[in-house]
Amino acid sequence: MQGDRRHPGFPALVGRGREQRQLRDLLDRTAAGRLTLAVIEGPRGSGKSRLLQEFVTTARRRGAATVREADWIDGSGMWRIVAADGPADASPGAIVPRLLTCEHPQWIHPRVWPELEAIARTVPVLVVLVRRSGATWPEPEQVTQAGLHRVVLEPLTPSAVATLLTALAGGAPDAELRALSAVAAGNPQAVQDLVTGLREERLLRVDAGRAGVVAIRLPARIRAQLDATLAALSPPARHLVQVAATIGQRFGLRELAGLLHRNAAALVPAVDEALASGLVIGVDEDLVFRHELVRATVEESLPRSVRVALRDERASRRPRPAPGGPARASGPDRPAPDWRGLTEQERQIAVLVGCALTNQQIARRIGRSPHTVNYHLRQIFRKLDLTSRVELARLARDHTGPDDGPVTA
């Protein structure tokens, strides 16, 4: 959890400026006469508790009196709310807002709410709760009447993730580390777990203020978390993402429905659950696994015999070449490989393949490990729909120019 009490040395709160402003504005608007309620919502590891801690500190600086959870949720310490003092430099007679926080709303005794309503008639009272996305608690009538101000924690932006990676890894992340961090889906705790796992397995390298990876692979702790996420899905949603993983990192709902022998409309609940899990995201009209290694981990959860059968079934659905035609169709049945779809690193490796270099030689030439080269080659073959180095070499030579020429040592 971002800045969790379990990690006292954790860097400052990252990427939550909008949410902090929401809470500050709500505190400033809180006035006597009516109870004000807010809830910080987000998935596990999104930084809910860390945001609440930061807000408590901010509220004290802005003159509020804060009351911790243990002092009010059972109803025995309501006098503490009335007697709570503001800052020492508050002017005599100043009306001091009361901030009550709670990370376990399901533990609040029902008798508390009428008493809070009564107190709020004479002094400003803001209650801020923390709730995990999807969790429920018995909202009392007072909460329903007052209405909840919701502060929803969305995934961190790529720039915020890069800032967090810099703080955790001790160096600005290079392109490969930033790409690998996509497995965290913008979740602060998952980013921290990724860096911790890379460091544990000596896969993290920091040199001259730049942080990168020795090899592109998932640490064991991240694989275990992905396995747990997959196991937590309902059987229909788990079946859906497992079959989708045999298609590729990006897949369309129509092709997936064909493999599942279902109509697309019937898959909507399972798709919604898969999206909520963070294993896949929506991009344009397709669904995409958030990283190729996430897709590979999900695919490996299937028995090998099932993976082979699904691939064979998918292959049987592809248009077959006309009798006497080429073994691999061209034209509308097989679009020309899109060289522009490759990243700069992938184009560099493809060009070196066109120069007849081995993976070991390419690794030395670009200063990466053979594992990294293997990973990029798999991505290249998938993106270009190629099956051999000969095809890739021919295509690379066709595209070699001033900007794509061989890289010299």
Automatic annotation (TrEMBL):
Matches recorded under Gene3D superfamilies: Winged helix-like DNA-binding domain superfamily/Winged helix DNA-binding domain (1.10.10.10)
Q: Which InterPro entries match?
A: AAA_16, P-loop_NTPase, Sig_transdc_resp-reg_C-effctor, Tscrpt_reg_LuxR_C, WH-like_DNA-bd_sf
Q: Which Pfam families match?
A: AAA_16, GerE
**Region annotation (Disordered) ranges:** 310-339
Listed A to Z, the keywords are:
ATP-binding, Nucleotide-binding
HTH luxR-type domain location is 335-400
This one is known as HTH luxR-type domain-containing protein
Q: Which organism is it from?
A: Cryptosporangium minutisporangium
